Amino acid sequence: RDIEVESVTKMLACGTSILGVKHYTCGNHSCPHVKYLCNTCSCRACPSCGKKATDQWIANQQHRLPECTWQHLVFTLPDTLWPLFFHNRHWLDALCRLAVDNLLYAGRRRGVEVGVFCAIHTYGRRLNWHPHIHVSVTLGGIDDAGVWKDLSFHPSALRRRWMWNVRQYLLSQWEHTTVPPENAHLQSENDWRHLVLNAGGQHWHIHLSKKTKNGRKTVNYLGRYLKKPPISGSRLAHYTSGATLSFTYLDHRT
């Protein structure tokens, strides 16, 4: 994709004269001292710029979060739908909105407005395509009278609404869908409805983490993914002249 080529190009040029140079001289015209500073790329693909942006983002968020109990959730999709989102990337924004709507809806049913922030991840630990949504939510909210009320979320209810939300969205997208090679058998809207309504079976999961006393832990976790490359340099093991890149990862299933 063009954005990938652009990001890598910027990263490789970071800190070089390719991106421009700032020229600093002394205010004293008789002083011969001159300092040149090459511009940075400010690209998320860059480990150096990404680290700085991550630290700044985390620091800013820490002052915005309410001091209350938080819970982190991960909304996943059945793998049969992954190729569809790969070839229709504009749907990814809708996934975030649907996940957030799930929690806002649950809060409003109990008469409160909860606090939410989320981030989409499009890759797994092996850097494979795996779109899923990370969401942090306050375990409580403000009612119409401005009074704080505690609440908890029921996984089964969240899962049912998540499935319904995503399926209804996908059903509305048939006319604008780019059909991937894996789904070449889809020839009509009826085929599309059958796929969407039967996708995944029980493989629609929402993972609820342990509750935390504040949102700082989640902010630190999400910050690493929002502003930095998907893999850190410390995990890179071996590179063979443009052909093979080896890296390490933790397989939580083994």
Automatic annotation (TrEMBL):
Residues 115-253 form the Transposase IS801/IS1294 domain. It comes from the Bacteria. InterPro entries: transpos_IS91, Transposase_32, Zn_Tnp. GO terms for molecular function: DNA binding; transposase activity. Pfam families: Y2_Tnp, Zn_Tnp_IS91. Residues 5-77 form the Transposase zinc-binding domain. This is ISPsy3, transposase. GO terms for biological process: DNA transposition.
